[in-house]
Amino acid sequence: MPSDSSSDNDDQNPNAIPSPNSDSMDLSLDAIENQLESISMTSQAETRSSNQEEEQLTIANGLLNEESRSEVVDEFEEELSNSNSKAELSSEVIMSSSSVWRYNNLEAEEAEAPSSPSSSGYAGERGSSNGTTSVADEDINDDSIRESGNPGGSSSQEQWVPRERDLNEDDASISWRKRKKHFFILSHSGKPIYARYGDEHKLAGFSATLQAIISFVENGGDRVKVVRAGKHQVVFLVKGPIYLVCISCTEEPYESLRGQLELLYGQMILILTKSLNRCFEKNPKFDMTPLLGGTDAVFSSLIHSFGWNPATFLHAYTCLPLAHATRQTAGAILQDITDSGILFAILMCRHKVISLCGAQKASLHPDDMLLLSNFVMSSESFRTSESFSPICLPRYNPMAFLYAYVHYFDVDTYLILLTTSSDAFYHLKDCRIRIEDVLLKSNVLSEVQRSMLDGGMHVEDLPIDPASRTGTMFSHPGQPRPATDSPDRIGDAFFGVGGPAGLWHFIYRSIYLDQYVSSEFSSPINSLRQKKRLFRAYQKLYASMHDKGIGPHKTQFRRDENYVLLCWVTEDFELYAAFDPLADKALAIKTCNRVCQWIKDVENENFLLGASPFSW
Amino acid sequence: MGCSSSVPDRNVGRIGGLNPENGGPNDAKNLKVKLVVLGSSGVGKSCIVLRFVRGQFDPTSKVTVGASFLSQTIALQDSTTVKFEIWDTAGQERYAALAPLYYRGAAVAIVVYDITNPESFAKAQYWIKELLKHGSPEIVMALVGNKADLHEKREVPVQDGIDCAEKNGMFFIETSAKTSDNINQLFEEIAKRLPRPDSS
Fold first, then answer.
1. What is the DSSP string of A553-584?
2. Best exposed site among A25, A101, B89, B144 by fewest CB in 10 Å?
3. Mean model confidence pLDDT for chain B
4. Beta strand pairing status for A224-229 and A91-95?
5. How far is residue A201's CA from residue A169's CA, in Å, rounded to a whole number?
6. In which band, very low, low, confident or very high, does the pLDDT at B27 lie, cut at 50, 70 and 90?
7. Are the C-beta atoms of residues A371 and A299 closer than 8 Å to each other?
8. Is the ipTM, as predicted for this complex, more than 0.90?
9. What share of chain A in percent tops pLDDT 70?
């Protein structure tokens, strides 16, 4: 049986990834603290090593060009102190007013604010009393937890298998404290609503502590955004009577974690609508857990997707690669039935869109699509039979329920029809029969299965145009090469050797279309751990490109011990590409231009065109 | 397994709600009825339905979302056929307000509880009241005590079920979706009790 939590393995065990500077990071908590302090703000908080170079690129004539100047950033030249003393730990609290409170003694601070009689905060922060560093402790224990808890450990990223939570865990358990990434939802009165690990009810004391922190700061007329303590970030999000908190030591940027809390809140709204606020108006001590009964899998699958699905930070959806005619056939029948009073018709294969259609003037936000498809895929009962269920699209109308008809055509492919009418089931069922007829007659479903096997764009297939070697940045419009033209490839079994110029992977996001296309993973990004590391690198890159304080940026070239990462943002698209760390910069830039051209050449297969008023 | 009875034959009511638009006239030999399954979460509503419709039992619990729609036709000894259009509703509290959507116009309601769980029996009584108050007056109701295979863990006595059913004019049976005990009997008994349209 495939393990559900290969990514959780990572979460629990980040230090297992060897990196040149991990030794120095492990030396002491002080070292980590120094690192944190020397980094001005979140966006810079990458694990930079001194050999990393960051270079400025400029854009000329719509092409990506290398500027001659380059600077080597050496923020970590300052020596990391090697003391084992834990008393020097400092933490910062960042408020919305951007004031920073510093505590030079975390022990003292912990004893004061965040600890309650029942929960004493994070033991992992403070180290053990016998003088060994707590980081080393965690390493050992995490390995044992991982091995006992998740045998197997080699599942596809997208496969998520629901599992029973360990409800015996609570904030006093060592295993609970070792978890790398916690999510909590609680009410403004401090009642637990959801916890990723452990039993919510046993975490009542811990929830009350979180609530106390939030209201303490609010009473001062401010708002707490994040607390940094050692390797941990505690990120807060307040949504009326609902408080969401993430406690993480995964080194993800604050913006990413906050975005994840927003999605978690959206998922709850999708299940209950925002009218849940009224329950709290009537009774501030309202217990919401019964209302969310049976939705554990929905939340844990969403949290899992924060570690592999680029849609969670790109705010865009992705399409299953299909021949243009095939997608048009599917689109036509969906259009046909939406004319009969259906709000949205969505045909999907796992998390990828085959086609979708909305009633006039109704537009579907990519985040809503992410939450909806997560809800459908993680609720097993939808696979058993056709279903009719109320759901809310938070970006469409957070106050009202829509009614969703859900039907699986095969194990991966499903149809969602949304309507405002609670009586429409039989009409939707008839629509589904019509759609199924067309899809079967025109072989759309078998094309979908074939595309699943073939995969999408492979970096090895990037057309090599000799003309591009002659100094011009722009390769000629090459021969269109359909992405699906690779019959000898069988899904995950295939691993390429990387693309030209050391290109390993790319993600291209079309801004007008709200869609992205991501290349298939290729050697050496084979293992889950490598995929997740690249995912996190993209996530950081995205956050730094969209940082409101120091951005927005147009280009970024970043070299570290793992990759060369190149990002290029224009009005039309964003390109994120990963190369071999030894890749030549000029060649990498040329290659990015080629990738963009290639994507344009095959856009018919990889994007749903005409889904928005814009077209490029 | 207890079995008790009472409901006299009445006419099938069809009023509003989630009812087939093109239901077609019921003739005396081929009945088509809307059936709703109600009860708290985890009592085995979906398991009963899937056992009846597909002959399957899946011990991994899959929480129903909203309501699932399935249909199954059975033939009776008098050569009539009955097509059940089954609304298998979610037991979660958040869907309680939607129940009328599914039971409105239903000809049959099956109220399920778990014999090892007294709370689910209390919830069953709530659903019975609700159906008597808001359901169609001609509705055929069955009270089902499920998980009868777990008799060592029984907490709701058979007699309690029988008494409750008798008081409310229902048909009572204990079933086990796991062993398939009494599942077909349940639906056959319901089919027998259905009012027959006048054959002209």
1. -SEEEEE-SS-EEEEEE-SSEEEEEEE-TT--
2. A101
3. 87
4. antiparallel
5. 11
6. confident
7. no
8. no
9. 67
Q: Do residues A119 and A211 make contact, with C-beta atoms less than 8 angstroms apart? A: no
Q: Is B38 helix (H, G, I), strand (E, B) or coil?
A: strand
DSSP letter for each residue of B103-124: HTT-SEEEEEEETT-HHHHHHH
Q: Do B94 and A384 touch (CB under 8 A)?
A: no
Res A91: pLDDT: 58
In the predicted structure, residue A548 carries a pLDDT above the cut 80: no
Q: Which of A425, A427, A429 to mutate against chain B (most B CBs within 10 Å)?
A: A425
Any chain B CB within 8 A of the CB of A384? yes
Q: Is the pLDDT of residue A207 over 90?
A: yes
Is some CB atom of chain B closer than 8 A to the CB atom of A382?
Answer: yes
Tell me which of A61 and A221 has the higher pLDDT.
A221
Within 10 A of A290 (CB to CB), how many other CB atoms are there? Answer: 10
Ramachandran region of residue A342, left (φ > 0), alpha (ψ -120 to 50) or beta?
Answer: beta
Q: Quick check: helix, strand or coil at residue A234?
A: strand
Write out chain A residues lying below 8 Å of B20, CB-based.
Answer: 426
Non-local CB neighbours of A522 within 8 Å, separated by 6+ positions: A458, A459, A460, A495, A496, A497, A498, A499, A504, A505
Q: Is the pLDDT of residue A418 over 90?
A: yes
SS (H, E, C) A431-477: HHHHHHHHHHHCCHHHHHHHHHHHCCCCHHHCCCCHHHHHCCCCCCC
Residue A72 confidence (pLDDT) above 60:
no
Integer CA distances (angstroms), A575 to A70, A463, A554, A597, in order: 21, 17, 10, 12
Which residues of chain A lie closer than 8 angstroms to B21, CB-CB? 426-427
Q: Are A425 and A405 in contact (CB under 8 A)?
A: yes
Q: Collect all residues of chain A within an 8 Å Cβ-Cβ radius of residue B65.
A: 294, 379, 381-382, 387, 389
Average per-residue pLDDT in chain A?
76
Q: Which residues pair with A419 in a beta bridge?
A: A403
Where does the pLDDT of residue B152 fall: very low under 50, low under 70, confident under 90, or very high at 90 and above?
very high
Which one of A272, A386, A429 has the shortest CB-CB distance to B94? A272
pLDDT of residue B46: 96
pLDDT in tens, A296-345: 999 999 999 999 999 999 999 999 999 999 999 999 999 999 988 899 99
d(CA A458, CA A271): 37
Asked which of A457-466, A565-574, A587-596 is least confident by mean pLDDT, the reply is A457-466
Residue A422: alpha-carbon gap to chain centroid: 33
CB contact under 8 A, A293 and B46: no
Q: Which alpha helices (DSSP H) does B137-182 contain, by range?
A: 158-167
Q: List CB contacts (< 8 A) between B63 and chain A.
A: 293-295, 297, 379-381
Contact A227, A91 (CB under 8 A): yes
B70–chain A nearest CA distance, Å: 7
Residue found by looking up tokens 């996530």 in the block: A539
Q: Are A614 and A524 in contact (CB under 8 A)?
A: no
Contact of A497 with A521, CB cutoff 8 Å: no
Chain B residue nearest residue A273, CA to CA: B94
Specify whether the backbone of A164 is left (phi greater than 0), alpha (psi in -120 to 50) or beta: beta
Neighbouring residues of A263: CB distance < 8 A, sequence distance ≥ 6: A302, A306, A312, A367, A370, A371
Query: Please, is B97 exposed, middle or buried when counting C-beta atoms within 10 Å of its C-beta (0-12, 13-18, 19+)?
Result: exposed
Residue A515 to chain B, least CA–CA distance (Å): 29
Mutation target among B32, B49, B61, B65 for the A interface, most CBs of A within 10 A:
B65
Q: Report the percent of chain B where pLDDT is more than 70.
A: 86
The pLDDT, as a whole number, for residue B78 is 86
DSSP reduced 3-state for A28: coil
Give pLDDT, residue A287.
93
